[in-house]
Amino acid sequence: MSDELFLTEKLKKGYQDFENLCRRCGSCCGAHDGDPCANLVRDGEDRYLCRVYDRRFGIQKTMSGKVFTCIDIRELIKEKQLRPECGYHIRGRVSHYL
Ligand code: SF4
Ligand code: SF4
């Protein structure tokens, strides 16, 4: 394997490892606050997904029409503003992804 391919694979794995820490609880998207993001959907296994995941950052609306800004979870990690139930809560597990 070339160095370039090795690095690409390593980055891909790092990204996936980071993504896998998400429990899909939907808390950071308002799933349990009474007025969730309009892009949030629940699957058949009680896990939540974002309908616009690849273009989620920026201005979005809740189900009632309230405007808010969707930001990268890394910002919430850095600002220590994660929900207690969030899978990224233990900073030691994710600091090398920030
Ligand atoms: S747009 Fe942002 S807040 Fe809305 S469901 Fe997607 S990730 Fe969650
Ligand atoms: S609160 Fe954390 S674990 Fe839950 S959906 Fe958001 S990022 Fe994932």
Rg result: 15 Å
Strand content: 5-15%
Question: Would you count the extended β strands for me?
Answer: 4
Q: Which hetero compounds are present in the coordinates?
A: iron/sulfur cluster
Helix content: 25-40%
Strand ordering within the main sheet: 1-2
Provide the number of structural domains: 1
Largest sheet: 2 strands, antiparallel
Shape label = elongated
Ends distance: 27 Å
Instruction: Give the helices and strands as they follow along the chain.
Output: HEEEEHH
Briefly note the structural class of the backbone. Answer: alpha+beta
Mean of pLDDT: 90
Number of H/I helices: 3
Q: What is shown here, in short?
A:
The protein is α+β, with helices and mostly antiparallel strands and 98 residues long. The protein has helices at residues 3-20, 73-78, 91-94; strands at residues 40-42, 48-50, 58-61, 67-70.
Explain what you see:
This protein has 3 helices and 4 strands, in the order H-E-E-E-E-H-H. The protein has a two-stranded antiparallel sheet. It has a two-stranded antiparallel ribbon with strand order 3-4. The radius of gyration is 15 Å and the shape is elongated. The chain is α+β, with helices and mostly antiparallel strands. The protein has one domain (3-97). The longest helix is centred in the first third of the chain and has 18 residues, at 3-20. Strand 3 (58-61) and strand 4 form a beta hairpin. Helices cover 29% and strands 14% of the residues.
